[in-house]
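> call design_seq(struct)
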């Protein structure tokens, strides 16, 4: 007998005020979506209108919740906030401008650019640690719920990169070859044997 499963669509939030100004935003600054980001959220809802969405979960941060709001209204679902879907902890870099960190060329920043797993931000998280916490909280959400369903999870770029890297057993430098645009998404499948896979599918995929 094949194990049962849950499909989980990881969605990066739409463009935020932090994205538009080139600043890192983690826990100490919670920017809203820009007008572009709100348009991306609406387009996301249109794109997944016909998908059999059963559950919605979101990062506690405003930009993720705002991204999911049109989809929640479209499917008449109430999102569940999962704290561990929050943005990567950027430690001392939280709120700083990327251009300033690049100009300073500090050894920690240059090392993080090369390998964000072995060289996390000062006081922050590694990329694979982020991936593990995201996958663990999604599995804990899926485990007691209806199987063979689709959950949409609104989260952040490094959360998605880290999750994919953990599933693929990829090393830290791979993060620099993964691109997650605003409102970009990837479909994962969790089996009740606690195995994860990356799915390649359309919005009309059959469950």
């Amino acid at each position: 007998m094949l194990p049962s499963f849950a499909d989980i669509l990881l969605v990066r939030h739409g463009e935020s005020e932090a994205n538009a100004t080139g600043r890192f935003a983690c826990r100490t600054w919670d920017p809203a979506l820009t007008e572009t980001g709100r348009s991306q959220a609406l387009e996301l809802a249109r794109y997944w209108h016909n998908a059999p969405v059963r559950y919605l979960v979101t990062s506690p941060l405003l930009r993720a919740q705002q991204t999911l709001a049109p989809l929640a209204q479209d499917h008449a679902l109430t999102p569940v906030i999962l704290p561990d879907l929050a943005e990567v902890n950027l430690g001392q870099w939280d709120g700083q401008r990327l251009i300033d960190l690049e100009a300073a060329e500090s050894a920690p920043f240059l090392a993080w650019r090369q390998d964000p797993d072995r060289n996390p931000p000062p006081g922050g998280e590694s990329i694979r640690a982020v991936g593990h916490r995201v996958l663990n909280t999604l599995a804990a959400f899926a485990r007691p719920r209806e199987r063979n369903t689709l959950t949409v999870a609104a989260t952040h770029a490094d959360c998605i990169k880290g999750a994919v890297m953990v599933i693929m057993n990829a090393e830290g430098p791979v993060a620099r070859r993964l691109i997650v645009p605003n409102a970009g998404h990837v479909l994962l499948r969790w089996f009740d044997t606690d195995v994860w896979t990356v799915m390649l599918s359309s919005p009309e995929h059959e469950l």
